[in-house]
Amino acid sequence: METKKNVAEKFDWTLCFILLLFAITSCAAIYSAQTTEQYNDNYFIRQLVFYIIGSIIVAVVMVFDNEQYRKLSWYLYGIGIFLMVFLFFAPESIAPEIKGAKNWFKIPGLGNIQPSEFMKIFLIITLSKLISDHHEKFTEKTLQTDVFLLIKLGFTTILPLGLIAHQDLGSALVVLAIFAGMVLVSGISWKIIFPIVMLGVSSAGAILYVVIKVPELLKQYLDIDQYKLNRIYSWLDPESFQSGIGYQLYKSLQAIGSGLITGKGFGERAVYIPDNHTDFVFSVIGEEYGFVGASFVIGLFFILIYHLTKTALDTNDPFNTYICVGVISMITFHVFQNIGMTIQLLPITGIPLPFISYGGSSLMGNMFAMGLIFSIRYHHKTYMFGSDSK
């Protein structure tokens, strides 16, 4: 017997509070970052506006339930692919080239919107439908059915992956993380997954070895120029490249290190980092609030991931579970990569810190993802009797 709940009981107040803390942290960090002489625009106000728009997106997305998203999945996927392809042919007035890349649509009154941020969410929804439909159709699991599922997931992912990789390698890595996370929980046998994982790890290790030890092979056979190789070398030894390509990383390490335990205080920064309100906003937090502030931000992400995991376990619909896994994979990779690159743990890829870095497309895409989580909680049915009673 299904139990009835009112709107207030169905609304996910915990997630709402978590996002409020992110909004406060983001706006405070951006407000402080923009006080340096490099900025003329008020990014603090813009980020507030993006959060308001993001809240509207959450409200709209939350209205639809899981069955409606299952029906809309391929339409959303098609819209995302169309927008990605249209970028190649759109005139400069609609899709301007920024910093040598044509990745954004110019929206009057709103700024530049990057369709790849929404394509990632559309891909999560579509892969979730593929996995759940596959298990409904093939109740008897065999290696053949697992291979068939992997092929379907791979072909669905490869098109947006290729389009996004052509524009932004960092975002392409996020797509791979989403794909990997969803494959891991899709029920595909480890007899298939393990060899693929080992092949990927071995290939990555081999490439890194060649880059470090014998870069001449890459120049000769793959026509990779020295600048791209220097991006790797500047990650491994930023001090030697501090006057050029390694400048941001070197300054980021200085900023975070100088923050010590409690930081220098709000607005009390001494280390100059270009564009520190976007990809390197964690460096601002580390310098101003030290280990305590950085730990708070990381802890906030842990709480978010825990809540998303709990949502995945609480829902009684596999489609919802897979959506949660896709969102968790996306957010986790973003956080690990962004914070990792500011402390030299990982190479710099230009991936923003979710909910904190300045950026309308990134924030609205993440809020779209949160809207899906709100929807799952809002439309979740509980029963007075039965094994799925909560």
Automatic annotation (TrEMBL):
Superkingdom field: Bacteria
Keyword Phosphoprotein (UniProt): no
Localization terms from the record: Membrane
UniProt keyword terms in alphabetical order: Cell shape, Membrane, Transmembrane, Transmembrane helix
InterPro entries: FtsW/RodA (IPR001182)
Keyword RNA-binding tagged: no
Membrane topology, record value: Multi-pass membrane protein
Main location: membrane
TM region positions: 12-31, 43-65, 72-90, 169-185, 192-212, 289-307, 319-336, 356-376
Protein name (record): Rod shape determining protein RodA
Taxonomic placement: Bacteria, Bacillati, Bacillota, Bacilli, Bacillales
